[in-house]
Specification:
The chain has four helices and eight strands. It has a single domain, classed as SH3 type barrels. By secondary structure, the chain is an alpha+beta fold. Strands 2-1-8-3-4-5 form a six-stranded mixed sheet. A two-stranded antiparallel ribbon has the order 6-7.
Amino acid sequence: MSKQPRKQRKLIYKAPLHIRHQLISVNLSEELRERYGRRSLPVKFGDTVKVMRGDFKDHEGKVEKIDLKNLRIMVEGASLQKPDGNKIYHPIHPSNLMLIELDLDDEERNNILERKG
């Protein structure tokens, strides 16, 4: 793997979906780190996250939408109002989020958490 920034950017821009899913990993809170023995986990619809940086700092909300093409996450309540009155979600990069509560309805996600890494 190259260290050159242009090649690192190219890898992200041309990454397939199974790699992009890994790129939307979000840090876990301290309690979740101790419970699951992991530092980060790919985010999923229904997870509760806390915004750590940016205009919506310290805002907590559920994940409403995940944009794999642009590697951005839309959080409930982190929205802007357009001049015509419509509300749009403010896209947030995964590095600026922290997972507070996991949605454990998915059997495969439970298997990921139980296996040792």
